[in-house]
């Protein structure tokens, strides 16, 4: 995608914000739906909390690596890669 012109930048920005918004909605909806998930799967709050904690620890561990990647490959490349991974994870949320 050519993002050198104004229209290309606007489209890129819109797609990027949409992907991040959808991914954020997916993550936040899990917290809202926690009682339903626990009842449906028959698990305790401790087990579900452990899943959320592992996710948070994973994000804390990977953040420095993403920072180094951004420095090495450039902000635009890292941003596009993260947006694609976020989009793929949203699709997987939907399939699951």
Provide a brief overview of the structure:
The chain is an all-alpha fold and 96 residues long. It contains 4 helices and no strands.
Can you tell me about this structure?
With 96 residues, this protein is mostly helical. It has one domain. Helices cover 89% and strands 0% of the residues. It has 4 helices and no strands. Helix 1 crosses helix 4. The longest helix is centred in the middle third of the chain and has 29 residues. The two termini are 30 Å apart.
Topology:
Layout: H1 6-32, H2 34-41, H3 45-73, H4 75-95
Helix pairs in contact: 1-4, 3-4
What is the 3D shape?
flat
Instruction: Estimate what percentage of residues fall within beta strands.
Output: under 5%
- Series of H and E elements: HHHH
Total domain units = 1
Count of distinct strands: 0
Which segments are poorly predicted (pLDDT under 50) over 5 or more consecutive residues?
none
Task: Give a quick set of tags describing it.
single chain; 96 residues; 4 helices; 89% helix
């Amino acid at each position: 995608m050519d993002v050198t012109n104004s229209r290309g930048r606007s489209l890129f920005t819109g797609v990027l914000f949409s992907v991040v918004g959808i991914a954020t909605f997916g993550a936040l909806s899990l917290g809202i739906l926690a009682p339903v998930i626990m009842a449906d799967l028959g698990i305790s709050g401790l087990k579900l909390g452990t899943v959320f904690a592992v996710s948070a620890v994973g994000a804390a561990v990977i953040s420095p690596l993403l920072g180094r990647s951004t420095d090495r490959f450039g902000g635009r490349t890292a941003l596009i890669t993260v947006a694609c991974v976020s989009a793929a994870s949203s699709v997987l949320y939907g399939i699951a």
